[in-house]
């Protein structure tokens, strides 16, 4: 029987990202997907700085067209595309729509899903991933020590069985794997069914010059939502679940455009707007990720796609360490502990917004809204793989407010390395645990634990006037331990001379689930 350490089921954005991240870490795996390519409906469009940081770490961010630093996503109300704006919507009520470009080395990206997926697919293959497209999962069993999966090649009808140490389910909101495991979901549930029509209209692109990309169409007898994929493809979404003939679709497009423009219909779509979070992200040797774990409607920040990509970024390094025998399998339990609260946070933030609050019933308890930079770059993870992220802390805050708080993404700071190159502090992380310290007194402890030490002022230098200690919230002789995924695992409030080596050893034993 063929064996693979990891079997990924589902080959869209999240599955392909999982494959890419595992391949980059040298983890053999097989990805299967019943489709042979990307969906003709582009679906997701916006990707956050955090997502681009993950792709930066694995070396492909430069393949993805990123938005200019001054770009901001804008949504306006209009009678039709060609008409004057009737008003503009704030993404987060009470917060100015401004972009703080200093928080990340990357900007976000506005690229259609069907254009991003081939980039991910090719990059994963280059790194040695095995992708079996046109192959579907028929059944699987978790035997405790391994997964046994039965597959079918839809190209020739051949059925065969493989074994895997672990299975990652990225098979969508209607996940058959989740249903097979009996994992239920909670949340606001079904909101509405959404129908849409995708069409090309190069002439409509001229209206993007005014600065908006999303248009709420409001007429006396016609309401819809119009947006673009920035490649002359436009998407018109209806507020009802009525099936329309081609003539009716053409009439609706003309009504939304507002004047006579040439266009061609590509395809139609229907999807469910809902809020559902799985009650377990891990069961036995199976992990849920992406829509299989959390079904969320479109928002700024792409809480669906980006959350899923972040799921598998969190999971990949843990699988690598466990499969390599470096960490105990208990490390994998932190995936559910860390990612499920993030799913709930994003569920609550979505349906607490005015544009979605109108769809939920009175049983829903709205939460205060977090700032955009807090949700995109400042979420807190709590688990045994983090020391110092207590329950008294908020679920999210601006990276500037966190200042090196354990459980948060390590802050981005521009540095120069020994070759005089300008790099981001985030470029120091990715494959292994990294210890940051300003004094070389930590070197002996780092060497004893086989930890990579980056000595501030020797290996890298700060460009800006802020100091290492202030940026990471530690005393001058302290140190910071950063996980392979760029999350701060621990920071020392002692000097190296005051027992820091033993403190570091105990911290690493806990956060890495290793014997040291």
From TrEMBL:
Domain of life: Bacteria
Keywords (A to Z) from UniProt: FAD, Flavoprotein, Membrane, Monooxygenase, Oxidoreductase, Transmembrane, Transmembrane helix
Molecular functions (GO terms): FAD binding; oxidoreductase activity, acting on paired donors, with incorporation or reduction of molecular oxygen, NAD(P)H as one donor, and incorporation of one atom of oxygen
Residue span, FAD-binding domain: 4-345
Keyword Chaperone attributed: no
Cross-referenced PANTHER family: BINDING MONOOXYGENASE, PUTATIVE (JCVI)-RELATED (PTHR43004:SF19), TRK SYSTEM POTASSIUM UPTAKE PROTEIN (PTHR43004)
Cofactor: FAD
Listed name of the protein: FAD-dependent monooxygenase
Keyword presence, Transmembrane helix: yes
Organism from which the protein derives: Undibacterium rugosum
Segments crossing the lipid bilayer: 6-24
Cited Gene3D superfamilies: 3.40.30.120, D-Amino Acid Oxidase, subunit A, domain 2, FAD/NAD(P)-binding domain
